[in-house]
């Protein structure tokens, strides 16, 4: 039976994805790697479902760890999947199938217990029914398999230098994210969500991870993305619609991100909740 | 010449240290371990200075990685060092010398270029002259050696469940920490502090790490510590002196920590800045 289907679009609507392509299994899914390697030792031809694969850099990076395994990478957007497929071809990752699909319809799309590992990175934080999505992920993982999820705590930004303008930017980031149906508290909520999706506490292993933008290259990639979203992107439009900042204030935030990325000792860190759910045999 | 000596006491004045003894090299200095192992391969008898070693659990844990090396562990408090020495004896860590000393007087205590590695965990955040402390650490490390520092961003707490009472607790935590001369922004300031202490940007490698309290045991150890500090410890006394919370409000925070630690899906994460400074040869 079809699941009810809440928001079935990727709401942030980013047009540029340079900052997404910075992502790898090593910087975005390190908590999964020891488990993945251990599963692959027992079963080299394991199957992995990558939910919300986006531009596919985490997917191709995961593929390296299971050269004899197979990854099914899904996303709502055929456009981003075709970009991901080009990326996969460019790095000779041949063990990935790309397929448009919704996380809310995993069970009907793939059938129960179809994968050894089901992975999502920064997906549930965009959904207005994350528990329902997690229940679908649990439904398609095999008994003895693992669901792995990592999501940001959008309330938490660790900046240097910090300023009132950056504080205001964090508020805009949170308000526009929430207005688009996302959760600002996804990271630390993952254990609670997993239990509401049917997992037992003893089958959930929680950890936290970080992203840090500190090198000149990282500051450029991420600073440009944050600057562009606030001076001309969807986020600016939404902030103005919500009436939470003026044009002038948003311009100042863009200038602040520009200054930040040009500052040699600047950094910005984010905090991410991580869970590994072992499905009982 | 003696350095000027700002605050030369450990101001938080915690009486119980159970939560300190939870700390290990693996959960509190993972960013240092690959470098430490690589240095030990070239020079098995390397020397490490552990600054602000406290109850010594990180120290003994680091000692396992350099069995042929030697650690000098310093702290301001002879009492805590004697506890640390007992702990070291109990785990048969025989390659550690414990010695009372101040981070502000490292050069005069040990002479220049005395150690291959100089490490501090959650020390600079308590000091009112962290750059001066870092300059001393750089002074006593050998050319080609490494200074390793990890410090919390005290503004950033990732809770589930979250509440207005927890938000108020974070404000009390920050205000009492700052009133004691500490920095709430130590974590993301480390690169900037390193450069002010004389390091070149290209010799500083920044990363971030986390602590997560999520298992029943972790919630008990840390929840008890946070509860006790707010219902009866130094933090309560300071909060009342500062006039930032009433007795009733502080009691409610204690009750909230009690509830939090009894909540099966609760967690609390913190974010820590980390730097490795390679001293040029």
UniProtKB/TrEMBL annotation, chains A, B:
The Methyltransferase domain, residue ranges: 45-170
Read off the InterPro entries from this record. Answer: Methyltranfer_dom (IPR025714), SAM-dependent_MTases_sf (IPR029063)
Against SUPFAM superfamilies, the record matches this protein to:
S-adenosyl-L-methionine-dependent methyltransferases
* CDD domains in the record: AdoMet_MTases
Q: Which domain of life is it from?
A: Eukaryota
List, alphabetically, the PANTHER family matched: TRANS-ACONITATE 2-METHYLTRANSFERASE (PTHR43861:SF1), TRANS-ACONITATE 2-METHYLTRANSFERASE-RELATED (PTHR43861)
Gene3D superfamilies according to UniProt: Vaccinia Virus protein VP39
Which residues does UniProt assign to the signal peptide?
Answer: none
Instruction: Tell me the organism.
Output: Cladosporium halotolerans
Stated name of the protein = Methyltransferase domain-containing protein
């Amino acid at each position: 039976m079809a699941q009810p289907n809440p928001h079935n679009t990727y709401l942030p609507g980013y047009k540029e994805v340079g900052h997404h392509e910075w992502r790898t299994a090593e910087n975005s899914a390190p908590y999964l790697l020891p488990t993945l390697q251990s599963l692959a030792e027992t079963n080299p031809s394991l199957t992995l479902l990558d939910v919300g694969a986006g531009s596919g850099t985490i997917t191709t990076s995961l593929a390296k760890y299971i050269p004899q395994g197979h990854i099914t990478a899904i996303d709502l957007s055929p456009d981003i999947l075709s970009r991901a497929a080009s990326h996969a071809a460019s790095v000779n990752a041949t063990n990935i199938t790309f397929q448009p699909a919704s996380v809310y319809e995993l069970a009907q799309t793939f059938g129960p217990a179809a994968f050894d590992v089901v992975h999502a990175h920064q997906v549930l934080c965009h959904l207005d029914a994350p528990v329902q999505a997690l229940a679908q992920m649990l439904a398609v993982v095999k008994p003895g398999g693992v669901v792995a999820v990592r999501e940001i705590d959008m309330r938490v930004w660790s900046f240097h230098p910090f300023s009132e303008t950056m504080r205001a930017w964090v508020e805009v980031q949170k308000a526009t994210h929430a207005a688009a149906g996302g959760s600002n508290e996804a990271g630390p909520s993952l254990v609670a969500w997993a239990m509401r999706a049917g997992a037992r506490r003893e089958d959930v292993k929680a950890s936290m991870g970080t992203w840090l933008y500190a090198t000149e290259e990282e500051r450029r990639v991420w600073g440009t993305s944050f600057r562009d979203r606030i001076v001309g992107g969807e986020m600016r439009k939404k902030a103005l619609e919500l009436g939470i900042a003026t044009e002038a204030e948003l311009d100042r935030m863009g200038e602040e991100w520009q200054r930040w990325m040009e500052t040699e000792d600047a950094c910005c860190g984010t905090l991410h909740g991580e869970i590994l759910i072992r499905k009982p045999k």
